[in-house]
Specification:
single chain; mainly beta; Leucine-rich repeat, LRR (right-handed beta-alpha superhelix); Immunoglobulin-like; 2 domains; seven-stranded mixed β-sheet; three-stranded parallel β-sheet; 16 strands; about 35% strand; elongated
Length: about 200
Amino acid sequence: GLTAITIPDSVTNLGSGAFSGCRGLRSFSFGNGITEIAGSFFSSNTNLQTVTIGAGVTNVGTFAFYNCTGLTDVFFKDDAPGVGEHAFDNTPATVFYSPGTMGWPSVPSLWATRPTALWLWRPIVPGDGTLGILDNHFGFTIHAPSGMVVVVEACTDLTQTNWLPVATNTLVDGSFYFADPHWTNFLGRYYRMRSP
């Protein structure tokens, strides 16, 4: 079954209970076109671990995340939405939001019965053996929250400010393998990552 779903920005509506009880689903990312997470949307989805909520969401419905006992991280891309009763009951998640967004309580105060934390991303390139030349490509694995957009930029001289984007990806299941197809065209190249 499906373990990770990313809804594109072009989708504007998903019905009540749409993914209720989907036990195989582990991560879910809402596009920016969705304005409401309908009532009981993920209710009793016990294996769901991480959800990223797009900038368009202005309301989280009643029982939307009720009894999602495996849910640990909910990431909001924008201001705090309205929230229905019991939306996060029996759900252990921490709610993460970006600095500078509006309507959130101060950290670590509760929002909709859940603790809050700032969504600060520090790029990590793990020591898992993927950094370097594999299959005639130079690359590395990037880990970040599912649904996060990550831009990899490159330059050939650190004293200059001419960083060029070489890849843009939305992370699924919290990781992405970056491979530079043009690595052989340069004597040396530097890379950095950012999230728009």
